[in-house]
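# nightly structure sweep
# worker-07 picked up a monomer target from the shared queue
# config: single-sequence mode, recycle default, output format = structure tokens
# input follows
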Amino acid sequence: YPGVFVWCVVPHDADFQALTPVATIHEAEGTTVIVAEPQAADAGLAILFRAARITLGVHSDLQAVGLTAAFSGALAQAGISCNVVAGAFHDQLFVPVETGRQALQVLRALQQSGNIQA
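# output follows
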């Protein structure tokens, strides 16, 4: 997906219906929302993390064993941090925006090695 996605925290009682988050995570401290950067800017939200979004093409079973370890290990070896949000059909990887192109290269090499199917 093109663009930059960001992590922001809103209070539990905040109305964020104007946003279209990729994901929300409710924690004791507040609700984390992952949204496109322009939406966060328009809403005046403080940005905690800026990321490039990579959607794995492989259908990822929520009970699969080893897929996350394979791609996170390859990215870790390249010095790239990765935040994973699992959808029902595909894993969404969020890497620091400045490492997006490098992360894609690492994942393509992993795919070509046969260690993941995409």
